[in-house]
Design a protein that fits this description.
The chain is α/β, with parallel strands linked by helices and 386 residues long. Among the domains are: 59 residues, Orthogonal Bundle (DNA polymerase, domain 1), CATH 1.10.150.530; 138 residues, Alpha-Beta Barrel (TIM Barrel), CATH 3.20.20.70. Helices cover 34% and strands 19% of the residues. It contains 11 helices and 16 strands. It has a 10-stranded mixed β-sheet. A two-stranded parallel sheet has the order 1-2. β3 and β4 form a beta hairpin. The protein is globular, with a radius of gyration of 22 Å. The structure holds iron/sulfur cluster. Iron/sulfur cluster binds next to loops. The site of iron/sulfur cluster has 13 residues, from loops.
Length: 386
């Protein structure tokens, strides 16, 4: 058997002292065990314990020889980041985690539980972070105000999903229609960080979460959201994975977009839309455009008309997701119901399909970066107190 090199993420991330098995594809796991003299079927057993039985540690893996369990304990880890805080929204449908990575950095992960609606069944969606902090500085985003710390490893991304998979197994959610939800069904890569800035680790995590020996979450149930990094969009178009693509657009022209999204200087809207056309042409998949509605900034009917005109070339292959800004966002006001309705109507009249995403968990500050910003401020206040 050929020995498989386990990628070393230490140039962009803190190197774990023990091998993080959550960051290995099944083939890599087979290779890692083969280097320790173990046959392929041990990899199947181990992956089954990690992703199917959702074992919290190696001690629980009863059909592995005791000597192997001891070796795994010494040389490997499946623990993932430590939970610093977990809070639940009053309605119980949004749960947010503040996780502490091995190097002390903080990231956030959110579980959102949705009842059945129309044709779609009840679902459990995890919103995953791909970086600690973010380099892109969008003004409406708490993470953007922190600056960039580092990329997450594939294992650190997978661990966020695994946490909620374990939690749902032990504390299933009973949806209003009586359906019991005991597994993670959907993923959105929309937490802290820009996924395409950390392309390799993000796509590796997608493969691990999608693999039959992993959590086996369908690629069609995963959405990667980007501020429009053109090389990432073009790379994703070449992947043999049916992952959904979402673009954070938030403005109908470059001048306006630049005020909230500095990335526009590097990738103007026209370039992003060209890349989306290429992506849609190659994959035949629809692109979702996310548009945060900021009262008095980008929510007027003329903005909707401009947006509809912009999307004409993609009309059959795009959808606009309107997101009224989170109440807790600094410096921005929530648009009125009337403004949202008028915006939707104008888009529809322009031939662009659209929907409004209900914001989740205002009472637990669910928008990305808010909890860790709060924690950082608390830490600096504590350090000033001593
Ligand atoms: S919205 Fe996304 S890309 Fe922009 S600063 Fe926040 S995390 Fe970064």
């Amino acid at each position: 058997m050929t020995s498989i090199q386990i990628p070393d993420n230490s140039t962009s991330s803190a190197a774990p002292a023990r091998a993080d098995l959550l960051g290995l594809t099944f083939l890599e796991l087979v290779g890692w065990l083969a280097e320790r003299g173990q046959p392929t079927f041990r990899a199947k057993q181990l992956a089954g314990w990690i992703f199917n039985s959702l074992a919290p540690d190696f001690a629980a893996m009863r059909n592995l020889p005791a000597t192997l369990r001891e070796q795994l304990d010494r040389e490997a880890s499946i623990a993932g980041p430590a939970v610093r805080t977990e809070i639940k929204a009053k309605d119980g449908r949004t749960r947010k985690l503040l996780l502490e990575l091995a190097d002390g950095r903080l990231i956030e992960t959110v579980l959102m539980l949705y009842p059945a609606s129309g044709e779609s069944r009840a679902r459990a969606t995890v919103c995953v972070s791909t970086q600690a902090g973010c380099a892109y500085g969008c003004t409406f985003c708490a993470t953007g105000q922190m600056g960039f710390d580092r990329h997450l490893t594939a294992g650190e991304i997978v661990a966020q999903v695994l946490h909620f998979a374990r939690e749902l197994r032990t504390q299933p959610w009973v949806a209003p229609d009586g359906e019991t939800i005991d597994r993670v069904s959907n993923l959105v890569f929309m937490g802290m960080g820009e996924p395409f800035h950390n392309y390799d680790n993000t796509l590796k995590a997608v493969r691990i979460l999608n693999m039959p020996e992993g959590l086996n979450i369908g690629a069609r149930h995963m959405t990667i959201s980007t501020v429009g990094l053109v090389p990432g969009i073009l790379r994703l178009a070449e992947e043999p994975l049916q992952v959904n693509l979402a673009i954070s657009l938030h403005a109908p022209n470059d001048a306006m977009r630049l005020r909230t999204m500095p990335v526009t200087r590097k990738y103007p809207i026209a370039q992003v839309l060209d890349a989306c056309r290429e992506y849609a042409g190659r994959t035949n998949r629809q692109v979702t455009f996310e548009y945060v509605l900021l009262a008095g900034v980008n929510d007027a009917p003329e903005h909707a008309r401009e947006l509809a005109a912009l999307l004409v070339p993609l009309r059959q292959l795009c959808h606009v997701n309107l997101i009224p800004v989170n109440k807790t966002a600094a410096n921005y006001a929530v648009p009125t119901g009337e403004a949202i309705r008028a915006f939707r109507e104008t888009l529809r009249a322009g031939g662009v399909s659209n929907s409004v995403r209900a914001e989740r968990g205002d009472d637990i500050a669910a928008a990305c970066g808010q909890l860790s910003t709060h924690e950082r401020r608390k830490q600096s206040a504590d350090s000033l107190d001593v």
